[in-house]
Amino acid sequence: MHELVGALRSYAWGSRTALAQLCGRPVPSAHPEAELWFGAHPADPAHVRIDGHSESLLAVVDADPQRELGSIAGEFGDRLPFLLKVLAAEEPLSLQAHPSLEQARGGFARENQSGVALDSPMRNYRDENHKPELVVALGRFEALAGFRDPMQTVRLLNALGVPELGQFADLLAAQPDSAGLRTLFTTWIALPQATLSTLLPKVLDGCVRYLSERDAGNGGKRKEFVAEVRTALELSEAYPGDAGVLAALLLNRITLEPGEGLFLDAGNLHAYLRGVGVEIMANSDNVLRGGLTPKHVDVPELLRVLDFEPLDLPVIEPEALPDDVFRYHTPAPEFALSRVELAADAEPVPVLRSGPMIALCTHGRVRLLQAGEELIVECGYAAWISAVDGGIRAQAVDGSAQLFCAVVGED
Hints:
Jelly Rolls; eight-stranded antiparallel sheet; 11 helices; 21 strands; 26% helix
C-alpha cells in the first residue's frame, strides 16, 4: 500500500475553498478548484509515492497489471476500471448525459475516422468506455437528474401562468410519456435564438411571480415547485439566454443530505448544481452536453444517447454493515463504493476487501495497517492498495475519521 496524491482539476464552476480546506491548504485558492481525480485515467492520473519518489498510477498499473490488478486485469483490458473523485461545485455544471458502452465505442470510432483530435474542443468521445456514476454527498448536495413525471411537469408549466407555455404544456399533456418528453425537449433545445430570446424572459417573469405569490391564496403552505422555480432563476443568472434553462424545467430536482448517494446510468440527463461529494464512475471522460456551458454542445449526438423515460431517481441509502461500514449498491460492474466511519480511540477495523482498492480519507486522519506495516492517510489524500496487498485494517488517528473505499464490482 502506498500514498496516492490526487490530480487537481480547475474549472470555472469549482470552489476556491472546499478542496483547499479538505486538503489543509490555504484558503482561498488562487483558482476555482473543481475536482480531485484519484485514478489511472490517461487524461490526468493520480500519483503514487513509492520509496521517496512519485510515479503516475497509470504507469504503475501498466508496468505490472497482474500484480496491481490481479484477477480483474484481463476483464477490463489491463486497466483500472473506475475513477474516484472528490467534486466541489460552487456553480452549476453543464446539462449533460453519458453514452452507453455501445454508443461510446461507436462514437469514438466515428470521430477517430473523421480525424477529430483527441484534445479537440469539438470532440464528444475521448475514449471507448461508458460512464455510469455514483455521487455521495459530503455535505448538502443539489442536483437535477432524470426526466420528471410528465404530468408533474404539466402542472409546473401551468403554475407559472405564462400564456406562451400553454402550447408546450398541452403538447406534453396529450402525450405524457417518453415520446412527449422527447418532442418537448427537442423543441426547446433547438429553438432559434430569436424565439428563445422572446420566450425565456417571459418564463423567468413567471418564475418570479410564482415565488412572490407563493403564500398568497395558498393557506400559508409552501407551493409545490419552489425549488424547481428557484433553480431556473439561478441557472438563468449563470447562463443568460441558454436553452438549458428551459430544459432544466423537465428534470427532477434532488437534494442529497450527507451520506446519501445518487446513481446515474447511461442516457440520464443531469446537472450537478452545488455541493461537495465523492464521485465514482467507470474510467471514462465521455460527456454529451445539452447546455448551461460555454463548451461544445452537440444537440444531435446528445439526442442519440438520451433516455427520455420518466425517472423518479431514488436517493441511495447505503447498507449498514458491521464496524460502521456503509456500502452503496449500484448495478455497475466497474466499481463498488463503501464509506467507513472510524470512531476516535477505537480498535482497527477491517476494510471491505483487499486490493485493488483506493482508500480516500475525507475527514480526520486514517492509519492503514497491513502485515506489520502502516500508512497514515491525511485528509484529502488516498492510498493505493494493489491486488497483492491483503488484510487491510483502518483506524482513526487523533479523533474520528471517515474513509471511502473504492473497489471493482460487488463482492
